[in-house]
Amino acid sequence: MENDKKLIIFYSQTGNTKHIAELIQEQTGGELVEVEAVTPYKSLYLGGAQRVKKERNEGTHPPIKTVTLDEGKYQNVFLGTPNWGNGIAHPIMTLLDQYHFENATIYPFCTHGGGGLAHVALDIEKRCPEAKIGKSFDIYGDGGAGAKKAVEAWIHSLDLGGANENNIR
Predict the structure, then answer these.
(1) Which residues are 81's β-sheet partners?
(2) Residue 140 in 3-state DSSP?
(3) Is the pLDDT of residue 161 over 70?
């Protein structure tokens, strides 16, 4: 299939989400793209939370470094984010203001500090109404020693050809 290329696109503040994205790339051979804020965020624990709250209250999304994608090229999109306040990170919101991945299946994945998946998949679904939302994955921190096996099990459970409706929300 011409448009069966896989994309792994992610934002990572601490490196945890990047680590998981790289493990997904190992398993799928997909193209890896990192989303970066023009003005990096400070640690959420060292003052960055005020910026996040301000952006959330104002409904603003931060400028990101240019990401150029041919959306129609990808059938399967792995979209990664840390869990920020029970949802997607603001740089991912900015990305989804530009790209909606119509006719693709998006597989959300998130790293967290105890909040699990929360509203991550729902946030993506709201911003990408023409995409299918596939089976999500969440992992605590960078996943530790079991991260590779956990990612392998998740990837193995997916029908990346799109025929298995059990993997779609």
Answers:
(1) 110
(2) strand
(3) no
What the block records as the tokens of 168 is 């779609």
pLDDT band at 52 (very low <50, low <70, confident <90, very high): confident
CA 28 to chain centre: 15
Please give the structure tokens belonging to residue 135.
Answer: 């089976």
Measure the CA–CA gap between 1 and 37, rounded to whole angstroms: 34
Written as six digits, the tokens of 2 are 């011409």
Position 46, amino acid:
L
Q: Which amino acid is at 166?
A: N
- State the pTM of this model: 0.90
CB–CB of 83/138 below 8 Å?
A: yes
Q: Write out the two tokens for 49.
A: 């939370």
CA distance 44 to 84: 9
Q: Which two tokens stand for residue 7?
A: 């994309």
> Position 10: which residue type?
F
CA atoms within a 13 Å half-sphere pointing along the CA-CB vector of 150? 18
